[in-house]
Amino acid sequence: MTTLIDALRLALAPDAVLDGTPGAETFQSPWTRLGAPLAVVRPASTAQVAAVLRLASDAGVPVVPWGGRTGLVDGCVADGAIALSLDRMAAIEGVDAGAGTMTVQAGCILQTACEAAADEGLLLPLDLGSRGSATIGGNIATNAGGNRVLRYGMMREMVLGLEAVLADGTVIDAMNPLLKNNAGYDLKPLFIGSEGTLGVVTRAVLRLRPAPVSQDTAFIGVEHFDDLPRLLRRLERGLGGNLSAFEVMWADFHDLVTSAPARGRPPLAERYPWYVLVESLGADPAVDAARFETCLGAALEEGEIADAVLARSKAEREAMWALRDDVAQTARNGPIVTFDVSLPIPAMNAYVGAVQAALAEHWPDLGPPMVFGHLGDGNLHIIARVPALTPEHRHRAEMIVYRPLTALGGSISAEHGIGLQKRDHLDLTRSPAEIALMRRLKGALDPAGILNPGKIIA
Ligand SMILES: Cc1cc2nc3c(=O)[nH]c(=O)nc-3n(C[C@H](O)[C@H](O)[C@H](O)COP(=O)(O)OP(=O)(O)OC[C@H]3O[C@@H](n4cnc5c(N)ncnc54)[C@H](O)[C@@H]3O)c2cc1C
User: Fold this and answer.
1) What is the pLDDT of residues 310-335, one digit of tens each?
2) Of the residues 286, 305, 327, which one is the last residue of a structural domain?
3) Domain tally, the chain
């Protein structure tokens, strides 16, 4: 192993290879287990990434790509592997305002890329609670979703071109930013959402949109679940494609985040079973605000909405979003297991009721799960309380949350991916033929199985 570490130091630079304590100390994460890597390597170019992979391949040592380490499914666990950090490849190579594109290295922090787009009057629409730490490469590797999927789609829709390095060091240059390119197989999507198991993403060309000029936000109380899809459809129809967020919080999650220390008064005085954070992004402030209020007014008249408050300033809007983003509160009252599922909206209420009942039956002394999510995308986050974080308790909670999804046509992962955490449940969502094809693809691109082994499929 010393030979590999020495060869890596020679190929990169002595200070680009951290083995032992310095690596562990520099690269901690509150969000994911990292395991005990042999070393953390920090290449500064695509050529260096290729060199790392070639050397690791020759030595038969696994390589685990690391971005911002905010992934929530233990995709970065690197026991006995080389952890390949992209943190030195963080440059924004250019913004082409005319073409509406940004060329960026994979280690660039999402927020930095968004700010660079904004400086040119453009929008990189991906928006996540982890925006200050997550990287573009990690966003691509997990096909991240977030708060604006309704309007702009997931990361897949924002990647026009990318560059990736295969396990044997081959560089795949698919950076051509053409919107339409049907010349043979489209290889880019292979790497998007592949969680570092098929290649290391090193650069990308991202699609930017015109920055919105208007931003209308409201916080809404709803009495009946069936009113949620009605309200969603009304806003989709009435806002002419401007609806960007339809975030729903079940009352237990709402009560938790609004009662956090130093939090001011909740946006709505009354308590409701559901709260919705709605946002519209548009190009004409006067027209858009009037249309937004008209839509909500009509929903109020029809009884779909019990009460609503509009954000009248940037501070009010940020305070509303701060509630939705404050997921850290869910760990306030003891151990939790987090889930990220998707299913058809009409099935959600009964599904959540069944999950609540099963958890209460199993652990009657613990509080109910906290439920919230991007309901407009069919995506719910369920945070289950468990007595302790043992494998047995986790498995029990997983069975309760995942099992009903197969019959409902749902998915065990809406946006966080599979990693190590959900691997053993993949067959609840994917057919045997799909999983077999995933294995064939993995075998074709990484025959020795050195790239992030054990993640997604065993
Ligand atoms: C507070 C919080 C809120 C979040 N909200 C959302 C949300 O709304 N929507 C959502 O989708 N996710 C969300 N996440 C999850 C997470 O932030 C995303 O998955 C993000 O895209 C991960 O980026 P990262 O750079 O941190 O990747 P990492 O955690 O470093 O890596 C994630 C996976 O991608 C692989 N990987 C990383 N970089 C590369 C690369 N360059 N090439 C190949 N593989 C690579 C890793 O090996 C690992 O398997 C949230 C996380 C937190 C902590």
Assistant:
1) 999 999 999 999 999 888 888 888 99
2) 327
3) 3
